[in-house]
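Schema walk-through. Below, the input block comes first and the output block second. Nothing else is stored per chain. Lengths vary across the set, and this one has 291 residues.
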Amino acid sequence: MSSKSRRDFIKIGAAAVGGAAVASAVEIPLLTSQTQQKADELQQKDAQLQQKDQQITQLQGQVNDSSRLTGFLSLNPSERPVVEAMAETMVPSDAETGPGAKEAGVVYFIDRQLAGSYGKNGNMYMQGPFIKPGLTGPVTVGSVTYSKGSPVIRVNAGARYQHAFSLREFWRRGIQFLQDYSKSAYGAVFESLSADKKIQVLQDLFDNKPTNFTGPTAAEFVSEVHDMVMGGFFADPLYGGNRGLVSWKLAGFNGTNMGSEVGKTTKEIMRMTSHVRLTPQSLTDIQGGGM
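--- output ---
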């Protein structure tokens, strides 16, 4: 290569490098600006995504609460208003004592019990034979004959349950028998009757007056309903009833509140000479779930 051509080559190369440097100097700020813009957009999208995730979490919590508090697990649409009407008749609301069984959500407590171990007779001995109480003798069970019949057992005693079906079926039959009796004796389904007639129907059941109850008997059914209504009204809200702790507030029961809100221990409160009413708290409160 001649010296001239070499010098020309070097000049051309230097010019090319210089041009590249100039171009890079222009492009780098452009690329930096575009990168920063994309980063800002990505950060904004990420913030929006986090906000949507929070909304989804909140909505899921509302769905879970709705399912837990208003969703039914066992009682069908025709049974729910009957059970709620019976509960409301037994524990009505009024201006003096406040909310009753309906407002306390007793029907939800009963529904959950029927869907669980209670409704499946999980804690009951369910092997036969099943012998009705109070039968006059002689009564033969297997190869043994009892000349004086079967013993008289009070309603709601454990040994009184002499049915080969579950408590869920017990309630299903009882509700249907109740509706049939209500229509034949008082002209309408139970939940459509006036308050006075509802009371009378339940009194008839307590007196075992209806003859269409072929198992359970009328007295057995209404007594079981009564006990479950009381359970739903006074039990911890964790089990579906006693919404807003209405019965505990009525009775002055503090639940799981042992006195921390007033800065006292349980023993100190017991020795106090002045009256202290603690704010009722449920199991869900100490679990952090609320109601």
